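2024-03-11 09:14:02 INFO worker-7 job=invfold-0412 stage=load source=structure_tokens
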């Protein structure tokens, strides 16, 4: 996935409030939030419908101009439901675990 967002500041350097503002104003999910979040807690959603909804939500995420910001936000807040930057909560948890196991970069000799 590529980002269309002009990166002048790394997403991880942005405050959560600024990330939320960017996602709310520029994210493609703002046009149909139920697509990404699903029905409310009082509605049931058959498994086949949920899987189809999530697939469509992932497609919307593919070309989103704030995909990278959304991923950063989701990794920080650890959501328990929804589709975030094309990932489900369990997939985001796996990404966090994977990042923790990556070797640290070799910075060479430090003065």
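2024-03-11 09:14:09 INFO worker-7 stage=emit residues=111
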């Amino acid at each position: 996935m590529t980002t269309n967002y002009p990166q002048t500041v790394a997403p991880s350097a942005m405050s959560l409030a600024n990330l939320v503002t960017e996602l709310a104003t520029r994210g493609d999910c703002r046009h149909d939030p139920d697509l990404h979040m699903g029905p409310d807690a009082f509605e049931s959603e058959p498994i086949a419908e949920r899987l189809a909804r999530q697939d469509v939500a992932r497609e919307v995420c593919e070309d989103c101009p704030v995909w990278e910001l959304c991923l950063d936000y989701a990794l920080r807040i650890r959501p328990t439901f929804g589709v975030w930057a094309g990932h489900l909560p369990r997939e985001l948890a796996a990404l966090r675990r994977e990042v923790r196991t990556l070797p640290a970069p070799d910075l060479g000799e430090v003065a």
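2024-03-11 09:14:09 INFO worker-7 stage=report msg="The first helix runs from residue 16 to 26."
2024-03-11 09:14:10 INFO worker-7 job finished
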